Amino acid sequence: MFCLTVSAPAAPSAIPSPAEQRAQADGIAGAVVDRLWRQTDGYWHEGDYARIVALDRIITEADPQFLEAYSAGGWLMDSLGRTSDAEAYYTLGARRNPHAAYAYWNLGFFYFNTRHDYRAAARAFKADTRQADADLNDWKMLGHAYEKAGQWNEAVATWRAIKRRWPQGMSVDRLLRECLEKQARATTDRARP
Length: 193
What we know:
With 193 residues, this protein is an all-alpha fold. The chain has helices spanning 18-46, 49-62, 67-79, 83-96, 101-115, 118-129, 136-148, 152-165, 172-191.
């Protein structure tokens, strides 16, 4: 006996949901970002720093949380004499990553080391130390920035906070002692006629 079986036609491929489409796009973008980041090393060895900066900008547009690209790109801009661009790029990194200590550290170190604007550096390092991932070195830079800015009360308070939080921290005792000595000298110098 002969039997004919008829089956229903195969269902057309399901269209991915918006969440699935987003995950696919993120995966593609992530792969592109990783490849661009790897390319920067070759350009570094060729001395093509302008191309690295351009790639870092593309990377951070595709992945605004790629902190190392802000760090490298800002440093290169600064090194190439594009100081205002570096400042804007570091600021953008901090604005896009308000909960990342490293973003504020980059901005603070730029103000400290390049601009020598120690009050701005202290503001950036203060924001840095408010983040959950801030460490001893972040706090030390805040103390140094306050000292350089002549904000002695804030500097002493910072070194004391560091001492409480990291009692065995490298150089903390010495740095606190030196800050107290500098504060005493500054107070004496202001009191002289």
